[in-house]
Amino acid sequence: MKIYYAALVFVLLASCGNPKESDRLSVRKGKITVAVDESFRPIADAQIQAYQAHYPDAEFEVIYTPEQKAIGLMLQDSADLVMVSRELTNREQVYYRNREMEYLPAIMALDAVVLIANKSSDLEHLSISKIESILKGEPSDIKFVFDNSSSSNLNLMLKTFDIDNVNKTNIYAAKGTKDVFTYVENSKSVIGLVGLNWISDEHDKPAVALKERIKIIGIDKEENNEISYASLSTIKNQEYPFIKIIYLHTTQNGWGVAMGFIRFACTQIGQLVVEKMGLQPYYIIPKMFQLGETDPVNVVE
Q: Which residues are CB-contacts of 119 (< 8 A; sequence separation ≥ 6)?
């Protein structure tokens, strides 16, 4: 599916919207509920703070939860906006069709799943094949811990290796990302999987403090014995194998805070926030970025 430049999409949407509803809504003032996949908490907080700096009368109630629950809240009209790592399924899009609304997903940024270990661990990197075998439950001294049992981080890893069912032999579920760091600190045999945005902002004291507590594990892609680490450059060049897309979805049918936030996050100021966080802004990437094996996306630079 092709995702076009957010500003153009929103201009078209505004021209087709309900004038009466649009008159009642404002991007500057109002309160919305946002459901955010917990792995994206730092980037979500940064974008919300930036938006409120421009529009101080905009209020956000933020719910941090696994992405499937976040999407469920939106489709039950309990959240106006969600930040997750995937598009909606055809079944989920029925919500829009039943209300004669157009489904227009927006991509804000590219994040990554990072493997972290105990600082005193002798492990420096893991091969792609070893990661796959651990996920499939094959005998291993290494255990993986994810932020929760339905994490977008876990979903990405299962999708990468085409694994349909979770084998719990080598997998633990924590009580959020901070709990993953605690697991790793307390065991040399545990590898944590977290969102890069939790440790990518080199100017943010909490992010720096988290990063100092752990060791980042490199990924051996086994092609040329090349070891890859998640960074702005390896995400942009698609050298890092575990890249996550950050999608924004809303059910708001008019120019309110939810639509305003999406436009803000996907255009210049919001994209600068993404870059400041050490992530890859979506609208400043090469024109043909391969989202999947057969899904190249045109990007307006």
A: 185, 213, 214, 215
Partners of residue 250 on adjacent β-strands: 81
Amino acid in position 53? A
Integer Cα distance of 211 and 215 in angstroms: 8
In tens, the pLDDT along 12-55 reads: 344 334 444 445 789 999 999 999 999 999 999 999 999 999 99
In order of their start, the domains of the chain are: 6-109+244-298 (3.40.190.10), 111-236 (3.40.190.10)
The one-letter code for the residue type at 134 is I
Backbone angles phi, psi at 9, to 5 degrees: -60, -45
Q: Record the pTM.
A: 0.85
Instruction: Please give the angle made by the CA atoms of 167, 245 and 282, to the nearest 5 degrees.
Output: 165
Distance from C-alpha of 113 to C-alpha of 97, rounded to nearest angstrom: 33
